[in-house]
Amino acid sequence: MLTQKEVQQLDEQYIAHTYARYAMPLAQGSGSQCRDFNGKTYIDFGSGIGVNSLGFCDPAWAQAVAEQARTLSHCSNYFATEPCVLLAQEVCRRTGMSKVFFANSGAEANEGAIKAARKYASQKGKTGGKIVTLVNSFHGRTMTTLTATGQKEMHVDFDPFMPGFDYAQAGNLEDTLQKLDGAVAVMMEMIQGEGGVNMLEKEYVAAVAGYCHAHDILIIDDEVQTGAGRTGAFLCCEHYGLRPDIVTMAKGLGGGLPIGAVLLSEKVQGVFSPGSHGSTFGGNPIVCAGALAVLKQMDAAFMQAVADKGAMMKKALLGMPGVAAVSGCGLMIGISLAQGTAKEAAAKCLEKGLIVLTAKDKLRLLPPLNIAQEHIDAGLAILGQVLAELA
Ligand SMILES: Cc1ncc(COP(=O)(O)O)c(C=O)c1O
Q1: Ligand 1 touching residue 225 (CB < 6 A)
Q2: Separation of alpha carbons 43 and 377, rounded Å
Q3: pLDDT digit string (tens) for 245-290?
Q4: Residue 172 belongs to what domain range?
């Protein structure tokens, strides 16, 4: 095994630094805790950015992955496999959607959704393929999903961009309806995750949906971060009573292995035909076996527990010094600070043994969905100390 220093040196020398990494590499993880190379333990309020929905190395997930790796590892999408079809069936059963296209990431799922929407429109004789997204949204880092991302600062240096995108002010119905004129689809996150854990208003979503239904404009719901139980419902759109035409999932669905999914409703289920889209690794049996093990644990009691833990954490946070506001739903929580920066607070938390995330100027918490009460309490105690120091 390498030493911490060796890992740091190799990281510095060979990795393209697209992330401002923390100095210490991680060595081992189990449930809601992990350890660095010096044996220091950290409580995890980040889940690897919303991926480890059952924590690090959940035993049932690890067992399913290992067993599938010994049975049938990969065979290409020219063959159906048991984990892939069972996962698609389970995702459809839980969401009421009709078909699934599996990919490897959130961006790739959104690429698939954009292609599906444009093909649907093209088959209906609609031209232009305009897709409206929201200002401050985040949909991925590929060229098309970066174009879809409504954050100008992320566009710097990467033009030219894909044509056919327009950006509406989230929550501004007049602006949104104006931009939707002539569009083939709208793509929205119910809670903007990277954008700062900002929840869309129910009335706004309902009004946009009403307009879209009336004009056959498809609703693409980006649930890459909010999906798979994160908000206390399998999909966040359930809280809104929204029935999207296309849903994208990724992150927590795989429980730690790369996955993306494009969920197609009955209306658009026939849009893809052989040759119109693809992905070599999409629906990989090992990944799907892991995802099935994740979903197996997500029953009604599990979802209720996510909602309850989230409500309890929010209440505790609101009583902490220097907390100006708390946003989000379930175990997706944003914290606006009255004093200090989120980056400063996150670094101090890490020093004291707690991993938290940031999103814009807020702290962002995405703990494992099955986090135990003792770890919530221990994490909140550290956070409380840090915020008191900053206040
Ligand atoms: C809402 C949303 N969409 C898309 C993405 C991109 O996912 P990935 O990094 O897996 O490509 C993210 C990632 O944070 C996201 O939060």
Answers
A1: yes
A2: 10
A3: 999 999 999 999 999 999 999 999 999 999 999 999 999 999 999 9
A4: 72-297
Angstrom CA distances, 172 to 107, 206, 208, stand at: 26, 13, 10
Cα–Cα dist 44/326, whole Å: 19
Residue 33 pLDDT exceeds 90: yes
pLDDT band at 391 (very low <50, low <70, confident <90, very high): confident
Report whether 327 contacts 298 (CB < 8 A).
no
Q: Measured from the CB, is residue 221 less than 6 Å from ligand 1?
A: no
The model's pLDDT over 339-374, given as tens digits with 9 standing for 90+, comes to 999 999 999 999 999 999 999 999 999 999 999 999
Could you tell me if 99 and 248 lie in one domain?
yes
Question: Does ligand 1 come within 6 angstroms of the Cβ of 223?
Answer: no
* 269 and 310 together in one domain: no
Name the burial class of residue 127, with classes exposed (0-12), middle (13-18) and buried (19+) by CB atoms within 10 angstroms of its CB: exposed
> Which residues partner with 69 through β-bridges?
none
Residue 65 belongs to some domain of the structure: no
* C-beta of 107 in contact with ligand 1 (< 6 A): yes
d(CA 372, CA 227): 21
